[in-house]
From TrEMBL:
Organism of derivation: Salinicoccus halodurans
Signal as UniProt keyword: yes
Annotated spans, Disordered: 22-56
Signal peptide: 1-21
Protein name per UniProt: DUF4352 domain-containing protein
Length: 194
């Protein structure tokens, strides 16, 4: 009986030591894999930041709709700040608008570079965000409906206005017009305040 107990003890000790040494190897392998993944993610991040995804007024960006996988080009021609657009005053759009509120009018050219027709408003949907922040404002559909309802044939372009209700506060020096926000295809135009 003592003989069997001794053999059983030795086998148990052997299994415990084997399991412990095996878990260290697995942990080391996992750590190496994790380090490699982190390095890859950091490299991708750096590539995204340096690939020119922040454009200026006058630049043309080629963008692909993340949801529909349809490419299009956008050129932001101008960004104006006003109290009125096409006969619509800021006060008629926003009750209790403060002194810091204004209409941000983005004039841009959209070109369909895909093989199929697109309706601008279904594929091109930019948000306006304060420089360096997330979230954003959507354009006033009622003021831009006619423009964004246009259908563009392949290689056709249209120049449209998108109107945003914005406010200036703090030391904010610019806004960003962001396309395909929160997707791998996110592209932004820097729009300085006057």
């Amino acid at each position: 009986m003592k003989k069997y107990l001794g053999i059983l003890s030795i086998l148990s000790l052997y299994l415990i030591l084997g399991a412990c040494s095996g878990s260290n190897e697995s942990e080391g392998e996992t750590t190496e894999e994790s380090t490699e993944e982190t390095t890859d993610n950091q490299e991708e991040s750096t590539e995204e930041e340096s690939d020119g995804s922040m454009y200026e007024i006058g630049d043309t960006a080629e963008i692909e709709s993340f949801e529909w996988e349809v490419p299009y080009q956008v050129t932001v021609n101008s960004f104006d700040q006003a109290q009125e657009y096409d006969g619509n005053s800021l006060d008629s759009l926003v009750s209790n608008a403060g002194d810091s509120h204004f209409l941000g009018i983005v004039n841009m050219t959209v070109k369909n570079i895909s093989d199929e027709p697109i309706v601008i408003g279904e594929y091109v949907y930019p948000n306006m965000v304060k420089g360096g922040s997330s979230g954003g404002e959507q354009y006033v559909y009622d003021l831009s409906e006619e423009d964004v309802s246009q259908e563009l044939q392949p290689d056709e372009e249209a120049t449209i206005d998108l109107v945003y209700i914005l406010s200036e506060y703090g030391d904010n020096e610019h806004f960003e017009l962001t396309f395909e926000q929160m997707s791998p295809n996110e592209t932004a135009f820097r729009l300085p305040l006057e």
